[in-house]
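Reviewer comment 2.1 asked that we show a complete input and output for one of the modelled complexes. We chose the cytidine-5'-triphosphate case, as it is the one discussed in the main text.
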Amino acid sequence: RGTAPGTLPLAGRHVLVTSGPTHEPLDPVRYLANRSSGKQGHAIAAALAALGARVTLVSGPVALPDPPGVTVRHVETAREMLAASEAALPADAAVFAAAVADWRPAEAATQKMKKPADEAAPPMALVPNPDILATLSRHAMRPRLVIGFAAETEHVVEHARSKLARKGCDWIVANDVSGDAMGGAENTVHLVTDAGVEDWPRLPKQEVASRLADRVAEALA
Ligand code: CTP
Ligand code: CA
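Response of the prediction step:
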């Protein structure tokens, strides 16, 4: 569709973004989580809004302010993140940048777990969490453009390619997290699509975000 001069490229578009870790409770004071800071996902939400998109950001627990001009849904667990993401549909595009916990404790105790008299450690049974990206990629209200992330410490592009196929998304932003990417200010990513792989240089997370937002705008144009 043509863009009138002075009109932002994503004006009139709705984009869903997930960001941050999830916290999976073990009891009222303990949880299972990961080192995601939310910096990359939040920067993507802000960059999309700067291009004129209406953005719904579904965020796990992070120490970041809500990006200005973005509707933020705060959640804790993977199951809450899935519900909030589905509730945000329809969307023209979706970017799944969250580091969702793959498993959660099978049961969350309602009271704080106490050390047994014999000092033994309690067993911790885990069950798989729903895959939000895979679920929304195959959803009846699937966004036209679905973008996943792949956090890898080795064989980055290979693993990303298999995730692209397995999850049913359109693009994967493959993220080398072997260094300090989780929590750091910069990111080295590879954009993996059916058309091939683009290696982006190491960039500040804001710069990765604005390049990705530009690509989303091109794809939806
Ligand atoms: N993802 C998701 N829901 C999950 C797990 C992952 O939506 N329960 C999304 C992430 O937001 C990311 C993509 O799937 O966009 C890939 O996440 P990643 O952890 O790299 O892949 P997994 O399929 O969980 O595989 P593994 O952790 O074993 O590498
Ligand atoms: Ca995972």
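The mean pLDDT is 94. We note this here for comparison with the apo prediction described in Section 3.2.
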